[in-house]
Amino acid sequence: MIHYADEEPKENYSDYISKKLGYDYTYLANIFSEVKGITIQQFIIINKIEKVKELILYDELNLTEISYRMGYSSVAHLSNQFKKVTGLAPSVFKQMGRKRKSNLEDY
User: Fold this and answer.
1) Nearest-angstrom CA–CA distance, 11 and 15
2) Domain-embedded: residue 88
């Protein structure tokens, strides 16, 4: 639902996971937290931000388009989660990616 989708998800993650695995979401969430040490929601957010980082570096979509594609309610919400996970604003991450790409092209 995160890495292979080209548009906003039609179903929320908890319903999708529960239906696919055939168990109550609360039960799955408790087991997941025990095993991984983070909640399913935290895991989903981390994976969404990884996909956002990819999309930023591809430089084909602007932040508004990325926000919509990834199912965020706003660019501000995406930016806040991005900064919480990476410690950087999306714009700073993009500049760092451009600088790194430029440095690699020099070789």
Assistant:
1) 7
2) yes
- Do residues 80 and 69 touch, judged by C-beta distance below 8 A? no
- The model carries a pTM of 0.80
Q: Does 55 score more than 90 pLDDT?
A: yes
Q: Name the maximum alpha-carbon separation found in the chain.
A: 53
Per the structure, the count of domains in the chain is: 1
Q: 41-75 as b/e, with b when 16 or more CB fall inside 10 Å?
A: eeeebeebbebbbebbeeeeeebeebbbbbbbeeb
Which CATH number does the domain housing residue 24 bear? 1.10.10.60
User: For residue 4, what are its two tokens?
Assistant: 């292979």
